Amino acid sequence: MSAVETTAAAVEMEHVESHLHPEPTFALEAHPAPTGREEIWRFTPLKRLRGLLEDVVADAHLEQKLELPEGVTLTQISLDEANALGGTAPFDRLGALAAKNAGTAHLLDIAAEAELSSPVWVHLHGTSVDDIVSGRVVVRVGNHAKAVVLVEHTGSTTYNGFTTVLVGDGAQLDLVHVNDWADDAVHAEQINARVGRDATLRQFEFTLGGDLVRTSTNVDYAGPGGSAELFGLYFADAGQHFEHRLFVDHNAPKTKSHVVYKGALQGQKAHTVWIGNVLIRKVAEGIETYEENRNLVLTEGCQADSVPNLEIETGEIDGAGHASAVGRFDDEQLFYLRSRGVSEAEARKLVVRGFFDDLIRKVEVPELAEKLSAQVEEELQRHVLAELD
């Protein structure tokens, strides 16, 4: 038996379950309708999900535009075929409903050993909030391939998605999600990623629009040596609810994870939620993990909830830690800039730009990085900062 098979067998025998995460399954009956008191639902305004928790099959779809470089195919497959490809089953009712009611699934396949000359670009656009849209996607990256996949969301919709990401042994994937919805959109999505032996996943999530956005990213490992870096940026305005949930399951030895999410809030009843859970199983010796969340509150009337968690089953690890902060502008930074003739409005903009800049620069697609910087600038023109100009 190989080392990977031995590790997988050990995990299967343990049946170690996170105290903070439900058992994954496609069975909808195992995910009853929430009351709002459950740990994974207590921050979510359930009424604003606009029927996404109901078992409704609809024929509506998002409009789709694609740019597929050589070495990439996109095919339609059945839901059963999608489930059989592997990956972790849904952790909650939203994921189970999306997997059940999507009708068909899309398989985005990147050939083994391919090194893409340009990014895969998927643009999904909503045209109405009246119909529920369910989506089921599998992103499969072959062994030793190297790729960048960009998924951009725009328009108005009521959308629930379940995405499986399979990163083959030795492969490298940058997966970028941009949630730039119209102000009336509702978007729920679960992204379950499995990272192969000595493979690398870098996921970026940029949430800049929508009425309610609730995403859940869950990572585990198919063998030793895998690495996952999860980066996020969100900017909530008045009345918006942005919720990002992360779960990293270190189920193999010598694996790594690094989570950094940063958010800014402005306007009455802007609400952001960040939940970071890491489970280190007994088999996961020699792992390294760190999770960080920083929130910048720009005006009165906002609320940022930040909850990091670590569950450790073994002491034989190389490092584990977390950091979380919610705060206002740094008065010293503002004073420094104001003392050099910079207006208050411009000083605040410079501080926020600097707060986000390191995350934006990690995206190795120049045109996307420029676009994201421009979108952050547009956010900074709104509400109180606009009034200060």
UniProtKB/TrEMBL annotation:
SUPFAM superfamilies found in the cross-reference section: Stabilizer of iron transporter SufD (SSF101960)
UniProt xrefs under InterPro entries: Fe-S_cluster_assembly_SufBD (IPR055346), SUF_FeS_clus_asmbl_SufBD_core (IPR000825), SUF_FeS_clus_asmbl_SufBD_sf (IPR037284), SUF_FeS_clus_asmbl_SufD (IPR011542)
Domain of life: Bacteria
All residue ranges annotated as the SUF system FeS cluster assembly SufBD core domain in the record: 131-355
Family affiliation: Belongs to the iron-sulfur cluster assembly SufBD family.
Protein name: Fe-S cluster assembly protein SufD
